Amino acid sequence: xxxxxxxxxxxxxxxxxxxxxxxxxxxxxxxxxxxxxxxxxxxxxxxxxxxxxxxxxxxxxxxxxxxxxxxxxxxxxxxxxxxxxxxxxxxxxxxxxxxxxxxxxxxxxxxxxxxxxxxxxxxxxxxxxxxxxxxxxxxxxxxxxxxxxxxxxxxxxxxxxxxxxxxxxxxxxxxxxxxxxxxxxxxxxxxxxxxxxxxx
Length: 200
Prior knowledge:
By secondary structure, the chain is an alpha+beta fold. It has helices spanning 2-14, 18-21, 106-120; strands at residues 25-27, 33-34, 44-53, 56-68, 71-77, 83-90, 93-99, 123-124, 128-132, 135-142, 145-151, 155-162, 165-176, 179-187, 192-198. It has a single domain, classed as Clam (outer membrane lipoprotein receptor (LolB), chain A), CATH 2.50.20. A 13-stranded antiparallel β-sheet has the order 1-9-10-11-12-13-14-15-3-4-5-6-7. The protein has a two-stranded antiparallel sheet with strand order 2-8. This is Lipoprotein.
């Protein structure tokens, strides 16, 4: 009986949600999620980029352009102007306009698609709200994945979690006039890190 109780307790603890594991405090939902960082159609968002994927490193210029409502174009080029990839997002539609042969792997394209969808999605419905120290944390779903948006009060980070495990972390720092001057996307389960520094 003692071993049964221990097993049940271990099972319950092991199945604790990401919010419980990190001691987030539930609070009343106040508002939905707003991401302003790539929302202005009059701007070209230009970043110096470094992408580390598996054992390869690619450097160059990363450009995001909002073309219309829920419509963005994302292009990554070398500093000499040669394209490495070129993606289009139009609401729920995604198109690969071009991708370098070395990067043309279905699993990588799907990962980049999900990552960039987080960057450009402006409004999301809040499912649950928490507080942790001075941060407000809002839980939501995007592309059937669970995300936690941290606000301080600006959007400072986003974490995608599967149950209690962190899968991807998005960090937004040096916020100025609704532009994140520095963005990092760090994957915990694969060797993929994207670092963006604004040169606008």
